[in-house]
Amino acid sequence: VNETFKRALIGIVGEANFSDDILDRVCYAYDASDHAHRPEAALWPVSREQITQILAFSSEHRIPVTPRGAGTSLTGAAVPVHGGVILDLCLMNQILDIRIADRRVVLQPGVIYADLERALAPHGFFFPPDPASSSVCTIGGNVATNAGGIRGAKYGVTRDYVLGLEVVLADGRVMRTGSYCIKSSSGYDLTRLLVGSEGTLGVITEILLRIQPRPTAVQTGLALFDSLQDAGQGVIAIMHSGVVPSVLEILDERSIQVVRGENGVSLPEVKAILLVETDGFTETEASFQMEKVIEVLKKHRAVEIRVARSPQEAEALWRVRRSIGSAAARLRPSNVSEDVTVPISRITDLLAGIAAIVGRHDLPFVVFGHAGDGNLHPRIMYDPADPDQTRRVQHAVGEIFRLTCDLGGTLTGEHGIGLAKAPYMGYEHDPVEMEMMRAIKRLFDPHHILNRGKMALDG
Ligand SMILES: Cc1cc2nc3c(=O)[nH]c(=O)nc-3n(C[C@H](O)[C@H](O)[C@H](O)COP(=O)(O)OP(=O)(O)OC[C@H]3O[C@@H](n4cnc5c(N)ncnc54)[C@H](O)[C@@H]3O)c2cc1C
Question: Fewer Cβ atoms within 10 Å of its own Cβ: the N or the C terminal residue of the chain?
């Protein structure tokens, strides 16, 4: 940004909330992906009015603006690939209203997920999406990426909880969408359009969320299988049984190998594991569901089923799942972790297909994920300093995306598209749908200042 622009932006946010210091520019070049590009400046607005002025000014002078929460995007969504300014929403972090009678909360976008959880806990309520990054990521980032988590099969994803939004558009106008009511059939649903728009359509300045009473009873179980097919069929049968587990995680053979011995995890040689959690508002309710699940899994030839009888035993079962990341990370200096998602009936096809693809490219990998909603995380380990391994990993990822879409799946169940998956949008979305997305982008942001270069929307 030149001196005139700099003075104008400082005039809006103040000296203290503007920086073009090289250290800040380097820090804001990154998110949690492998992508990087430096912005020319960072801004920390504190109000909708400041954002309105920043965007009106940026539109007029065609300055690229990248909104940012905690920067935990795994897809490069928060990386300012066209430079310009970073709009860090971290100072807009107030929970404005918790209204239990209406089961809703109003908050600013910079609220950290874990802080919202802490605020809701005394009321016995929660906001269920629960991404694994919950200790640091922001609700604004969750809304912008339609974040999800381990409880998606039963509780859905962020989009299922957003009732309304306040958004500053690229030209500085303020738009309010949605309704305070639990249901509404009024007009186009612009709220759902904005959820998952990754900062390309507007800057979210206020969020109205639906919240839920938190179940008070939980049962945890682990089922071991000698065959991946049996585990896959078990998942399908559970989903037909009338019970929807709050957690239904699958671990493939390689995940089991890497976690064996990790953090005291003891496991026999098996081909697949399912981690199951059922919940309810009484112990009887949670146990009844777990018994049903066990019945189904026995029918599908589970060779061993462990059910926790205490919180300590539950923790030990969870350790199996939670240890995968750290154990796999030791195999190579870096990894790519995808979040491909298929209809539940195609999970075993996807697991077998991923094994064949990555095996052909001769790289270490594990596959685990949320079997209950068809969302798998293939994680391929490689050394980025080795061009040959980097090339192989890129080919493998492209083939996995192709396979996923051929199985009727989606490129991303929770992380979003960002930069990383933009080249593959055509695998999932036909040319007419892509043209409609680009037309919507042009309508909201005619000068393409908002998060340019993302989601294959340019052009
Ligand atoms: C260890 C780890 C675990 C993870 N686990 C999960 C998981 O289980 N599930 C999951 O879904 N994701 C997961 N993620 C990815 C990431 O945490 C989510 O995408 C999260 O929603 C991003 O939130 P953030 O505040 O960090 O947003 P950022 O990374 O800062 O931004 C993400 C996108 O949102 C846009 N954005 C942010 N705030 C606003 C706003 N106010 N208005 C408009 N646009 C905005 C940005 O421009 C960008 O496009 C994980 C990441 C890490 C590092």
Answer: C
